[in-house]
Amino acid sequence: MIGRLSGLLAEKNPPQLLVDVGGVGYEVDVPMSTFYNLPALGERVTLLTHFVVREDAQVLFGFLTAEERATFRQLVKISGVGPRTALSILSGLSVGELAQAVSLQESGRLIKVPGIGKKTAERLLLELKGKLGADLAVPASVASDAQADILQALVALGYSDREAAAALKSLPAEVGVSEGIKLALKALAR
Description:
By secondary structure, the chain is α+β, with helices and mostly antiparallel strands. Helix content is 46%, strand content 20%. It is built from ten helices and five strands; from the N terminus they run βββαββααααααααα. A hairpin with a 2-residue loop joins β1 (4-13) and β2. It is elongated. 32% of the residues are buried.
């Protein structure tokens, strides 16, 4: 129904915004990934939206990218995952991180998101498999199981997906897991 809003950013109170569109103020709930990338108050903003009508409320959810909105829509299709939970997931993980967690079947990363328990995480992994753009799920540099294990180990050690993927690029093609982790940690220490 309402697919996009373009107007002046009137208020910012996480996770809610007030967008003034031609004198009408729209309350929009956004994930924190969108919130952090918003312009200053009084400046122009364009949000892609998803309108949810329930028996007791009508809520507008906003996103800066089509990728975020598409992922949100995939999440709310899953049984037991409502719009608030989907918003929480997108606030805790970027679309790329979520896609990578799904492709590597890492329920531990999903459980870290507030409101996501073990069963919900497993359901998410099962139902999202193959639906979240397999191309962006694992960096192109991850060509083997060993490299996937190295990437997973680096992320478990606290490195971001971007840092881990960059470290993988510096490794020889057929390196073993333990040697690869050592080399990657040396590369990241620089």
